[in-house]
Amino acid sequence: MKPRARKTWLLLHVITSVGWLGVTIGMLVLALAAFDEPQLYQAMELLGDLVVLPLALGALITGVVLSLGTKWGLVKHKWVLVKFALTVVAVVATTFSLRSGLHEAADGAVGTAGGDVLAAACVSLTLYTVNTVLSVFKPWGRTRWG
């Protein structure tokens, strides 16, 4: 990948990844506040549908493009492979679990949905923090395919 293209993809990856992390922190704050103000689940539903999912998919796609177009590769280094796996898990969980919980809570079926949404935000934040640490420290060396 040429330097200009690599920098463009890297910029897009950082923007989507940081955006995903930031929205997740906001969702965590809203999930805590929603125990007292259930109408906040409607705002969280909008964020989940219109912001979180596009950022998640953007981070996944730009990460794959970067890994395939740079020396790191998708399966050459353990940290890249772990980061890819965690991102796929997060995208799938966001798509099928978090969003459905947000829809239930926004429709008034708060019940256990509030705790589920809070737990999902905590798990998501943990995954994104681990991914950030992996990106900075690049631990573990090469895989056997590297």
UniProtKB/TrEMBL annotation:
<feature type="transmembrane region" description="Helical">
    <location>
        <begin position="9"/>
        <end position="35"/>
    </location>
</feature>
<keyword id="KW-1133">Transmembrane helix</keyword>
<feature type="transmembrane region" description="Helical">
    <location>
        <begin position="118"/>
        <end position="137"/>
    </location>
</feature>
<feature type="transmembrane region" description="Helical">
    <location>
        <begin position="80"/>
        <end position="98"/>
    </location>
</feature>
<keyword id="KW-0472">Membrane</keyword>
<keyword id="KW-0812">Transmembrane</keyword>
<feature type="transmembrane region" description="Helical">
    <location>
        <begin position="47"/>
        <end position="68"/>
    </location>
</feature>
<protein>
    <recommendedName>
        <fullName>DUF2269 domain-containing protein</fullName>
    </recommendedName>
</protein>
